[in-house]
Amino acid sequence: MGTELMRRGLSRGECPETWNLKRPEIVREIHRSYFEAGAEVVTTNSFGGHPVKLKAYGLENKVRELNYEAARIACEVRGRGKFVVGSLGPAGKFLKPYGPLDEAELEEGFYLQASALVSGGVDGLLVETMYDLREALVALRACRRAGSDLPVLVTMTFQKTPRGFFTLMGQKAADCLERLEKEGADATGANCTLTSSEMAELAPGLRQATSLPLLLQPNAGQPATDEKGNLVYSQSIDDFVAPFKKIIEAGVQAVGGCCGTTPDYIRRLAQFLHQK
Ligand SMILES: [Zn+2]
Description:
Bound molecules: zinc ion
Oligomer: single chain
Radius of gyration: 17 Å
Structural class: alpha/beta
Largest sheet: 7 strands, parallel
Strand content: 15-25%
Helix content: 40-55%
Number of strands: 11
């Protein structure tokens, strides 16, 4: 979503969620383009909709409206047999003692956000790009409260190191997934930062760690800026799609794309999965 909004003129430093109010037709069109490309599930334009994050833009009093509209817009173009999940990204500040947030404040924010997404009509909640297991668990708890019996999916962001895959906070990938399963997530996995070939390396370890459905959403390579100042991603569509063979063979049930995966990437990925 972020990638597509930037392609359509979202400027750096602008809050992406404000486009749910200012340019809803563009957000709707982006969702439609992913559904048309073959996506079965799209995520709402609410990644940065936590009150702590919105406060940085002076939008803390718009939490409900921005998240509610995010859900409503996506649900307007949801056809039969298709789904919308409400996106909840990190609050953007660290929990104590590394930062200013306490768990109660963090949880209350996720609860407000998730409640608005649920009112807007989502089919599930997706806590994503979590770089701290503690924050992921707080978000899971809040979503569980807000979403009653809607599925809550939680995917973490890992970095590849010589010793394996870890979160930014140094938590081991397998440990994160085990804990998320124990705390009641309906599905878990990884998104962002890693390429599809790195996720293919990560997948078997995740599969061993949990019996929950796994969801992996890699980036289209690493971001760089081209000569015009546009954000571009290093992986070609072919390079992005090929490693999904291994990812599926490892027992991953749901796949998609994170940063840089335009509808063209998703179209080819959907074609690839359907020929299998
Ligand atoms: Zn990403």
